[in-house]
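Final report, results section. Input specification for complex C-07:
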Amino acid sequence: MSETRYSKDHEYIRVEGDVGVVGISDYAQSQLGDVVFVELPATGKALSKGAEAAVVESVKAASEVYAPVSGEVTAVNSALEKAPGTINEDPQGEGWFMKIKLSNPSELGDLMSEADYKTYLASL
Amino acid sequence: MTEILSDAPVLHTALHDRHVSLGARMVPFAGYDMPVQYPTGILAEHQWARTHAGLFDVSHMGQAFLVGPDHETTARALEALAPADFLNLRPGQQRYSQFLTQDGGIIDDFMVTRSADPDENGTLMLVVNAGRKEVDFAHLAAHLPPSVKLMLAPHRGLLALQGPEAARVLSRHCPAASDMPFMTAISTSFDAIPCLVSRSGYSGEDGFEISVRNDKIAVVNERLLAAPEVKPIGLGARDSLRLEAGLCLYGHDIDTTTSPVEAGLQWSIQKRRREEGGFPGDARIQRELSDGPSRRRVGILPEGRAPAREGTVITDLAGNTIGTITSGGFGPTLNGPLAMGYVDSAHAALGTKVNLVVRGNPLPAIISAMPFVPTRYFRSA
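Structure output:
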């Protein structure tokens, strides 16, 4: 059983046990446009909630991806480095950025549910 | 060629509603609400313009005519403000130049065309950057002699049709277009619609710019879009195309602090003007032409995949700052990052290894020739 939660900066985290798969939402990829470069954190890096975790660049601009929760990076999707367009094609599937082992699962409560995120997007 | 972001775009080109209906993402640009991309995205638009024909609405650019009693009077009036040889322009010939400050900085860059029509002897047509048109027109109004009038043309829109299939498409509506040499212009008609067509552009490809009255531009736009070779292209791909072609963007790669020689635009200052001077900043420019400028605009290729954006510091391998990137991003045709910027002349030689400081990390890069992608301007046999 997994649950996906969203930040106001359009990161998602899909939680499976004590590990969350982090990426950017479909809305975020559509706003960025064609992704041409991604910079991922080192495995083992400790991230605090809201810290810069990765960089994603479109033809036009660079954007930061923030850690939606605190924890340790346990894996990164290095396939994105050769195929950054995957982030546009399948942002919440093959286009994931990193896995984070949650150090404070209660932080998930600060993030939006799928339904709340849809409401949030409608308000933008 | 320019980019000024404004919080409150209030101006629309005559094609604004059509861009919206095509699904464009609209952004503020030089006071206009302009399409940055259509639904297919910048990469696809860029590749389309390189392989077929892309249609750009560039009606936000400033169009105007200088009208004097004869060619010599009008040309000399413009030569007092810009360093190109306008006196020896042939009828129908187009040239690139820059308005200069008294110390040789660039107020704006522009295209000028001598009318091909014998009845318009003494008329030069100008196309200037959207974000600078008010400054340019005030500058002209303040400095032109009484015998040369500045006539603004806000009633005209401008379309750019760029790409290897542009000539084939345009010649269906405008048969005279296909034989035009690069950097010439004619007064002609598109089907039955009067227009001014020049063979020029801002993509590095063969192509045309079509100046037509705003009340007719939608017809021209639709007939061009109806061609299977043509897709609409936004400002995002316009920027990546010009960057691959090594062309300057005003407000980024050139401004009032850069001279044409520093910017590598000395090719646009013809021999007579170099020798005679007689334009603003002539002493500095003649000195830079003979002794070399202290800094130069160069092409820069990062060795890795990370783009280096405008404002990125350039250092030598010892870490000393030697310059700054003025335009940088990703080249879809190059399939990699690319940039241009200014470096101290001692470090400007092709092949020089430098570092680009991106997010605090020095990334290796190399001073490289421009254009990054070979230009394919039309040359008649």
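Chain A is about 20% helix and 35% strand. The longest helix of chain A spans residues 114-123. This concludes the modelling results for the funded period.
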